[in-house]
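Notes for week 9. Today we move from apo structures to complexes. The key idea is that a small molecule is not decoration. When we ask for a structure prediction with zinc ion present, the ligand SMILES becomes part of the input, just like the chain. The input block below holds both the sequence and the ligand string. Read it once before you look at the output, and try to guess where the molecule might sit.
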Amino acid sequence: MESLYRKYRPQTFGDVVGQSHVVSTLEHAVLEGRVSHAYLFCGPRGTGKTTMARILAKSLLCDMGKDHLPDGTCEQCLAVAEGNHPDVYELDAASRTGVDSVREEIINSVGYAPVRGRSKIYIIDEVHMLTTQAFNALLKTLEEPPEHVVFVMCTTDPQMIPETILSRVQRFDFKSIGQEDIRNHLSYICEKEGFEYNDEALDLVVRHARGGMRDALSSLEQLSVFGNGAITLEDTLDMLGVSSSTQMHEIAMGIAERNGARLFELIDELINNGADLLHFTRQLCVHMRNVYVYLVAQDNKALLDTIVEDKQEIAEEVAAQVMEYSKELMDVANAARQRDNVPVVSEDNEENETEINTAIYEAESPQVSLADDVTILDIDPDSEDF
Ligand SMILES: [Zn+2]
């Protein structure tokens, strides 16, 4: 079965979900014949960098001709989409062979005319992984690029790219895709595929994906296979190891009321259900941040609508002054995050359990002023490393 990610991959600029700032700038460049020789697409994984690179390649090769947006349906566009157009070179710098082939391709083939189309497009994925020699080869080409060549470099780590390269590229920063955009796309796919879905389950998938469409689609796919075409809340909680908002509310209230016994019970439940505790601490931090935002921005309806799932519950937590105890939770979450940089996957549940229990114990007794909690506003729940 073709994966949902492949099947619903955007084929034209118009299909792209989110990244409107990138889409509109590139569309103008194509229509006005001002496509640059080198682009750098930066951003978190799964936000559509390679997909955008392919669409740009189509713009340069499409049978619609120069200065037109690609149709996504002609022979050239289809070949690009399939990854077998002779004038589009896709290289993955993260693989061992990738580094060699980048050097070889660049040194050996960049000077030759395109095979079929008007341009040759080099898409280099994870470009920050290139060796110094490979970067040097690339730099030579970027200094005097042949007329027909366009480079699109993609990376999750722009800070690892040499300054000399950065100064010669047009840079685009891809953002995490908004929750509403992901949700709309998922429900569209569910309808197309005939999946039945539970609303709350879909929301969990969206939140778990943290702005990455690829992750969202792969969760959706697994759930649909598992549930035989039905996305149920129970399966979703099971598979993603996430805690429902009710659980989060109970935990917040337990902290506010200093109900240690209840908190240990709740953590026990999480563990027995096989929850990923690192992921749980992340969720708890995001939740605490939302409580704080609610506290300081109650009048801003638009803001609250995007962050707060259940205002009634959050209001109760604010009234119970759960924020008094949030600093300890933030500290332990940071510690857990630093020890385990691999997102979502936590192999050491036992150690996390001890830390969470310690944090909760500490959270029961401290006197932290609200002013100290301002630090939590620095936390961006959409950021890749959170
Ligand atoms: Zn076309």
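The CA atoms of residues 5 and 217 lie 6 Å apart.
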